[in-house]
Automatic annotation (TrEMBL):
PANTHER family xref list: OS01G0253100 PROTEIN, SERINE_THREONINE-PROTEIN KINASE CDG1-LIKE
Domain Protein kinase: 245-510
GO molecular function, one term: protein kinase activity
Stretches for region Disordered: 182-211
Any Gene Ontology CC annotation: plasma membrane
Protein name from the UniProt record: Protein kinase domain-containing protein
Organism of derivation: Hibiscus trionum
Domain of life assignment: Eukaryota
Keywords linked to the UniProt accession: ATP-binding, Nucleotide-binding
Keyword Nucleotide-binding: yes
Coiled coil: none
Signal peptide span: none
Amino acid sequence: MVSQTDPNARESVIVVMDGKRNKGMVDALDWALKHCVRRKDTVIVIGVLSEMGKKNATHCFPLNMGINISGILEKLEFSSGNTEGKPKDPGEEIERKREQYRSILQPFTRKCKRNEVKLEVKIAAGICPVEITLREAHNSNTRWIVLDSHLKKYKMCIYWNVECNVAVMKGKDVATLLPSRAPKPDYSSVSTERADAETCPDNQPLNDPENRVVEEGESPILETPRGPAWYPLQYRAGYPREFSFGEIEEITNGFSDIICEEGNLRIFEGVLENTPIIVKSVQNDERFWSMLSILSRVRHRNIMNIVGYCCSGTNRLLISDYPCDISAIKLTWRARWYTAIEIGGSLRYLHEECPDGPIVHRSVCSSNIVYSHGYSPMLSNFITAKWNKCELPSDVNSTGKCPNLEEEKRIYVDIHDYGLFLVELISGKVSGCFPHENEGQSLKDWALPLLQSESVTQLMDLRLADKDDDSKVVHCMARAALLCLKNDSGRSISISEVLAVVRGDQRAILQF
């Protein structure tokens, strides 16, 4: 058995395919060979037949196909509804798949041999895709896991239990990328980007000159060492929940560790289930209930949600995961672009996808963006957030819907603030601490003329000038910032349209 941490072991790329598929079965393998696999890697292809039966015990047997292929067959127990009165022989299905794999994988074996890549193929019958994937990942020096599009429902369960990159196919040659959260050795190359961004600006794949995804080295977001319980509490079973005041006292060690105190808000730190958390004491009752009503109804990976709450006497407390502390200077241009996409995605969720109606944040800025210990940027501080609903006078004959103009005004506040946040990402300057603010010039006043004249290089953070050259993503953020801050089109714009420009969608760019 090879340890995942063995530095001398071949690195592996695991490709997990739905064994029941015929058309498009090899899309994941084809993508992996193009974008993830390097010379002398090991590629482990797993064909999953998870619904052949229930597992009881495991044994393996060889499938001689001229390449290193084996079968992992769970002993199957079939229901008593079998009309023939005896179990169906699972070997027949395995044999059929063996012949099918022999045919479709033969072209790939030649490609692998040319690049000294070792190809292993396994057929897994009666095993949950998550179980077999995690087993193989933990038994090999895995760098990438690539999932068939038919297995996308398992992606987060796999992702949160491995320390490698994960890709999920969305179509031929298109994949969603989730980067490794594990601390890496210090390599010189730059990391791949993840997330909903399947394409980079100008619809060019995120490849290096040798047509491979470069995944080692610095993460899109700076990685920090993890504690033993790094999985965020807000995503664990049983949360969010109501806490008693006594529980909060124990968690915070009697409220002894206060982080900050500002106005009607005090923030304490504590530990819950070996996981660092923060407790916000909200003195304003109306704001507390507003925040709780919103945060109890939203669920998005890029929104800092609550672990729980406490309403006891005059105490109004909200419990959240403790975010990472990341310095902006250590965020590359690609990392900043990635952050822009993820935060834009959280706004799109609030504006367009919330089940209970649109929500406006009303305070989008760099100081309200935090990073989880899974290295995902998250929109935080919902103290000013509100449901985007109009309260019309009772004597007005209303259909119960807000006038479009009022809705647009409220949405535009977030759109405008998002544009200013993009300027902060590009310039490395904070809006509220802009050097010339005391002279009457705001960050927007300084940036807007440069955006309009396309003098983007004068906007760019000088601290990154000698570290990497990625002008494409910077120009995409700049175009989107201008669209948000100066909309002369005479019509309202949505966060989805802005997000398309950030991504580099040429159709969206030409539209404006």
